[in-house]
Design goal:
mainly alpha, 2 helices, single chain
Amino acid sequence: MTLVDKIGAITAIVVFALLAGAYFYAFRPKNKQKFEELRNFVNKEE
C-alpha cells in the first residue's frame, strides 16, 4: 500500500464516521422535539 492509498483509506473511514454520527444525531428520539420546532423556521413571520 502506498502513502496515497493509506491517506485515501483513512479519509474514507473518517468521512464514513462523520456521516454515521450525523445520521445517529439526527434520528435520536431525544432530538425530535428540537427538529420539529425547526421544521418551518423559514416560513415563520416574526
